[in-house]
Hints:
By secondary structure, the protein is an all-alpha fold. It has three helices and no strands. The longest helix has 53 residues. It is rod-shaped, with a radius of gyration of 25 Å.
Amino acid sequence: xxxxxxxxxxxxxxxxxxxxxxxxxxxxxxxxxxxxxxxxxxxxxxxxxxxxxxxxxxxxxxxxxxxxxxxxxxxxxxxxxxxxxxxxxxxxx
Length: 93
């Protein structure tokens, strides 16, 4: 039984356009392995890998903002819980 993937250049482009760079890179690597003389695959793979690096930088830059937001939500949650306890306490009277 032949275990051959059905990967195409069009599939890789769609994944790239959708921002799924890991999957696009996987497809381009596969296509390049099957067609090492195809310079277009090598160039496309390089472009996708560049986008992956850029995306990683963006994700790393977002971490402080996300952490700040997480702390803000945590404080709000804590305040809500305190108010609920106070409400329960006052309801006894």
